[in-house]
Specification:
Length: about 725
């Protein structure tokens, strides 16, 4: 950061020597040195005498000096002198003959005219904070060097308990390579900077005066920080203020050969806190070949939530909210380590207040630290707005890049699919990455007989992310299944390409439902659903009997969920939208007017949000039509447009007509899906179905028709694949 040096005038320079007083002025001020009432006129001697006399205006004077002379390295000398302990001078007749003249005054700064018998006042923590704040505003090489000397212990201050944490705060908020290296040392090797507790502090004379301290600082100002206290303060501040790059450096140290098991146990929980600033460091640990199974599982749950929210934004189903603050409060410190051994990697405490079922801290579990007067981070707790584009899109780039994708693939290949704590698939379902889709298809094909189960989360029963597997950040999307209710924004989001992955599996073939008007005198409520009549679960709490049927149920829930995602982003079509939708792989009837439509093409439509980061190609069309018509006529039209489709029943009232075939370009696959939601249940199948005798003409009914197409790279490979999802 560049700095501008302010050149003071002679009258404005606080380092200038005060003018020699006249004899009359000397006589009038012999009892007490005078200082100008205008604080901006204070000189070096005024600040030092004000410190000795505990002048109530000193804090304000220091604050004004810092603001008025920001970028001026010449005032650093004054600020250091105010921070440095000044031993009490003895009268000349009591001076130690072995003491060199002037050796008791640090930096040679002695207030001229001050009585030698005057005793310095107790340290003022408010003044300490003001002086450190002025060094922060100064932000010159000299100021940063003084701050590093405070933290390293080379500069002995009046109140180490206040000065050192305050200086560490500045180094973290104004990061430099030198400052980061020093803060890392305070975390991993504090004994090289301070004495361990119980050992005498050598060479720190006169630091025994008591101080009440403020806001978590001071309290025992005359005692220098021990190595343990230095590390504890560093952990508190790093958890709140450290930059992403610093956290990455800490993770690199913990992954390196020099890190001890104790260091990992002490410091990994801090990096495990679910916060965006930690994601880059967490990804390093996640991608590394280290035995930290439980920790990586917890990371996957957190990554899945972030990835889900990011998908909502790039799908345009969730609006960016840049106006909200990224952070307003202070997080707590993780409350210890896991009881379950994780190879010396510490981990996250299992159970207890503020923890979710997976063991990740949801909120503060330790006390806040005092940050000083007027610091906006000194009240409450830190909150994160994942809807802020400055937060969510950089995270999306980290989670959807090739290196992360490869780590997820490796984890999925080596993790037992039935393991409840395995969250690799939970994360994979939210990643719009071709390599992940291909790996999932390969894995799901090999484990097809196991059913969706943990392999595909709860898609077979809920259609969304497991309710117990998300919720780490208090996100408004977390913890609820997709497809919760019509017309609502989804609570979680899935990669649309997952539909092609699942439909590429060998799903069973259902007979198409038959539509008739109920017989006279029959009760529609008493009729079994079409799905039950077919012997397949229709979603009424009936558990599918075979893995094939379970996968079919998963695919039904998945298409419902993806249509709901589209509804959240859809809009009333304009003339331009109508031209675009005319190119949809599913042609709607002439004269039909969609109430909403949605079109998406990646990477083009994501470039504004993700910049140079390119998403793998995908193209989506969606329309929703509401009309009164005969079901059989609408069904016949769309069956004809799709050409030899498969047809299924979802619940009692929804017909799903679908195909999966080669896409518009070689190596791609196209899924075409039509959902027709009826206002009445399907009639049961029977021998008399379709017989006109004794039956009424089919009346028109209120229908909702949704068309959904998605085209992306073939997850089974670039070559031609049998369209086994089409009926013969």
């Amino acid at each position: 950061m560049g700095t501008t040096t302010v050149k003071p005038t002679a009258n404005d320079d606080p380092l200038a020597e005060p003018s020699q007083p006249t004899p009359e002025a000397t006589d009038a001020s012999s009892k007490k040195p005078s200082r100008p009432e205008d604080l901006s006129e204070w000189k070096k001697a005024d600040f030092l005498s004000a410190k000795r006399e505990n002048d109530p205006h000193l804090v304000e004077a220091v604050q004004r000096l810092g603001m008025r002379r920001a970028g001026d390295a010449s005032i650093v000398e004054i600020l250091v002198a105010l921070l440095t302990e000044t031993p009490v001078e003895k009268p000349a007749d009591q001076a130690d003959s072995n003491t060199p003249p002037g050796s008791l005054q640090p930096m040679g700064l002695h207030a001229q005219g001050a009585p030698l018998e005057q005793v310095q006042a107790a340290p003022n923590p408010q003044m300490i904070l003001a002086a450190v704040g002025a060094l922060a505003l100064n932000n010159t090489d000299e100021a940063r060097g003084a701050l590093r000397q405070i933290v390293s212990g080379q500069l002995r201050t009046d109140d180490d308990q206040t000065a050192t944490p305050s200086a560490m705060r500045v180094l973290l908020r104004q990061p430099t390579p030198e400052g980061d290296a020093l803060m890392l040392q305070a975390l991993v090797e504090p004994q090289k900077l301070r004495k361990e507790s119980g050992e005498p502090a050598e060479g720190v004379g006169g630091m025994g005066r008591p101080s009440h301290g403020i806001m978590g600082y001071g309290g025992n100002a005359g005692v220098p920080l021990s190595a343990e206290d230095l590390q504890a303060k560093a952990k508190e501040l790093v958890n709140v203020l450290a930059s992403e790059s610093f956290r990455v450096k800490l993770a690199e140290h913990l992954l390196g050969g020099k890190a001890t098991v104790k260091q990992r146990e002490d410091l990994v929980p801090m990096l495990s806190t679910p916060h965006p600033d930690n994601v880059a460091a967490q990804l390093l640990i996640y991608q590394a070949p280290v035995p930290a199974k439980k920790l990586k599982n917890d990371f996957e749950k957190y990554f899945a939530e972030i990835s889900s929210v990011a998908l909502g934004h790039v799908l345009r189903a969730v609006a960016d909210k840049e106006s909200e603050p990224e952070e307003t409060e202070t997080p707590g410190i993780p409350a210890g380590e896991s009881k379950e051994s994780d190879g010396g990697w510490g981990g996250i405490k299992a159970g207890g207040d503020g923890l979710d079922e997976g063991g990740i801290p949801l909120g503060p579990s330790g006390g806040s630290i005092g940050l000083g007067p007027g610091d906006p981070l000194s009240e409450g707790q830190r909150k994160v707005n994942l809807d802020n584009p400055k937060v969510i899109y950089p995270l999306a780039k980290k989670l959807w890049n090739a290196k992360t994708a490869q780590a997820v693939i490796v984890r999925g290949d080596t993790s037992p699919a039935s393991e409840a704590a395995n969250h690799s698939f939970l994360l994979a379902r939210t990643m719009p990455v071709d390599s992940v889709r291909a790996a999932l298809f390969r894995l799901l094909s090999a484990r097809f007989k196991e059913g969706p189960g943990q392999i595909f989360g709860n898609a077979g029963s809920e259609g969304g992310l497991p309710s117990s597997g998300i919720g780490l950040m208090g996100s408004p999307y977390a913890g609820d299944p997709l497809g919760a209710s019509d017309g609502q924004t989804p609570k979680a989001f899935l990669d649309p390409g997952m539909l092609i992955v699942v439909k590429s599996l060998p799903l069973p073939v259902e007979k198409p439902p038959r539509s008739t008007t109920p017989k006279r005198g029959s009760s529609p409520q008493a009729q079994p659903s079409g799905a039950e009549a077919l012997g397949v679960s229709g979603g009424n709490g009936v558990e599918p009997k075979t893995p094939e049927e379970q996968w079919l149920e998963a695919s039904k829930n998945l298409v419902l969920a993806l249509c709901q995602q589209c509804r959240a982003a859809a809009k009333t079509p304009t003339e331009e939208d109508s031209k675009i939708m005319s190119k949809s792989p599913i042609r709607i009837p002439r004269g039909a007017k969609p109430i909403v439509c949605y079109y998406l093409k990646w990477p083009d439509d994501a470039s504004e949000k993700l910049g140079d980061f390119k998403l793998d190609p995908i193209e989506i069309y969606y329309t929703r039509i509401e009309e009164e018509a005969q079901y059989s006529r609408v069904e016949k039209y769309y069956r004809g447009k799709l050409g030899r489709p498969q047809q299924h029943v979802i619940g009692d009232k929804v017909a799903w007509i679908e195909t999966l075939k080669e896409g518009s370009t070689p190596g791609t696959r196209l899924s075409r899906d039509v959902l027709i939601t009826r206002s009445q249940s399907f009639a049961p199948l029977g021998d008399d179905l379709g017989t006109p005798r004794g039956r009424q003409r089919e009346p028109a009914e209120q229908l909702v028709i949704e068309t959904f197409t998605v085209e992306t790279k073939n997850p089974a490979g670039a070559g031609d694949t049998e369209d086994h999802n089409e009926s013969g």
